[in-house]
Design goal:
The chain has helices at residues 2-7, 14-22, 54-63, 81-89, 100-112, 149-153; strands at 43-44, 50-51, 71-75, 92-97, 118-122, 135-140, 155-166, 171-178, 184-192. By secondary structure, it is of the alpha/beta class. A hairpin with a 5-residue loop joins strand 1 (43-44) and strand 2. The chain is globular. The model has no long low-confidence stretch (mean pLDDT 95). It binds S-adenosylmethionine.
Amino acid sequence: MVATQIARRGIRDQRVLAAMRMVPRECFVDAAMAELAYDDAPLPIDAGQTVSQPYIVAAMIEAAELGPRDTVLEVGSGSGYAAAVLGRIAARVYGIERHRVLVDAAERRLASLGYRNIEWRVGDGSIGWPEAAPFDAILVAAGGPSVPSALKEQLALGGRLVMPVGGDSWQRLLKVTRASDAVYRQCDLGGVSFVPLVGAQGWPEPGR
Ligand code: SAM
């Protein structure tokens, strides 16, 4: 998968490619789906959510320019797959997810795989994790109407935030770099499709 679907499509960061090789994606999906685990496609998980497509996980992590001393926040940690890849590169990972059933499963899964550098929280990641800030990188695995100001404020100077922004099914993947206290640089990495970021600085809860 890494050679044919990720490196061939342009991911060059050797840390990202090595980390993707180390994480067994079949452990993050239902046993009935295990044989599809290395297809480059999103797959269903509990709570009506998905584990992201491996190429997109790799592209977002590469864009975040992660290093071994970095502290990272992942908003929308779902199955824990992307957090597991992040945890192979960065020093510390904070994963926040709004569905308790997903956090409980991710925490168990990552503990059984031997991870000791990931902390989990059930909650609204659109307002970040203020007590653990500042973050060298923030990855948001769900699409919002705009970049939450709370997340921008929780970036370290020089920190990078990668997140889909746009409508509730199609978005642009944006990279925001904090250049100084009040100056943020933004670039557009292309079109993507993510589930909605539901929260105080995202979309309203469906049906509200
Ligand atoms: N990165 C995940 C993985 O590797 O399995 C995939 C995540 S899935 C594409 C997006 C996740 O964002 C869903 O699990 C959804 O519940 C979560 N989500 C949406 N809005 C959220 C919010 N405000 N705070 C935390 N999680 C949120």
